[in-house]
Design brief:
Layout: H1 3-13, H2 18-26, H3 34-41, H4 45-48, H5 56-69, H6 77-95, H7 100-103, H8 120-125, H9 128-152
Helix pairs in contact: 1-2, 1-9, 2-3, 2-5, 2-9, 5-6, 5-9, 6-9
Length: 153
């Protein structure tokens, strides 16, 4: 387990949502302070405000990628979209979907705005901690690959 993966899982278990946990471990090295990252990612937890749409961990991973790879004027949109598709594709390949409700299939789910109580039963039945870890590892691996390619050129 990487240091970032462990930290992201700890953030999630301490009460931050899935999106916050992922972007939280990449924020400062990407030029975004932790507090701003937490505020920015808050709406994306639970598949966007508990609507169970795109997995919050995936959203956090893509926000972190945007911080790392977008240029100042977002003139490199196509490049960032390509990176987005690669990262989301890798997650989908590993987990079968990027949609929260599909990842939580078989778990009674309410899309009310009130977060579920975080207790031992919550963590036992949901794959969220592992999905947070997957997103961190996918992005770490991608960043390593980019750095290696940069050194070779």
């Amino acid at each position: 387990m990487s240091e970032k993966e462990q930290k992201a899982k700890e953030l999630f278990k301490s009460g931050y949502n899935c999106a916050q946990a992922v972007i939280g471990v990449f924020a400062e090295e990407s030029g975004l302070d932790f507090e701003t990252a937490m505020k920015t990612a808050l709406p994306f937890g639970g598949g966007m405000g508990r609507m169970r749409e795109v997995c919050g961990a995936v959203s956090g991973m893509l926000m972190a990628a945007g911080l790392k790879f977008s240029d100042e004027k977002a003139a490199n949109k196509a490049e960032v979209y390509k990176i987005t598709q690669e990262l989301a594709g890798k997650f989908k390949e590993q987990n079968g979907s990027i949609i929260c409700r599909e990842l939580l299939e078989g778990i009674e789910n309410s899309n009310t705005p009130t977060p579920s109580k975080r207790d031992e039963a919550y963590y036992k039945k949901r794959p969220c901690v592992e999905l947070v870890g997957d997103c961190v590892l996918i992005l770490e691996e991608y960043l390593k690959t980019k750095e290696l390619a940069k050194k070779e050129n």
